[in-house]
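Okay, is this right?
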Amino acid sequence: MKRPDELAMKQIERRLKNLSSIAKDTNVRTGWIAYMRQAMCMTLSNLAKASGQSPATVHQIEKREKAGKVTIETMRKIAAAMECEFVYALVPKQDLRTFLKKKASAKATRVVREADVHMTLEDQKVNEDIKDRIDRIANDLLSKGDIW
């Protein structure tokens, strides 16, 4: 898959920067539905009525969310019933460009080492420095988006 162009990368990085500040504090012990329901002074019955479900169903949804087994669709419906926005995102653990460079470099290292084994078996030697070869191949792989 081809790497996003520079403008797209800047947009992605801007979005990720905004999300990364909140991504570190997203786990709440009770689950977000119960956490926000209580913060908003809503009982199970209030949320059940707002969402058109029974209190027992809402309780089961809260339990499934806490266990990580609730669907995105259910979260959207409950959020709407609570007059909240449901936010869903994947945020890399490190800067995106750094991540991409590391992945490309790791793949390039595998390619160079494998090639060196074959070259050695064929009694051939490459004069270019191994780090320069890895960097050159990593940049090529990155430009093609072939880093996995």
Observations:
- The CA atoms of residues 9 and 136 lie 21 Å apart.
- The two ends are 10 Å apart (CA to CA).
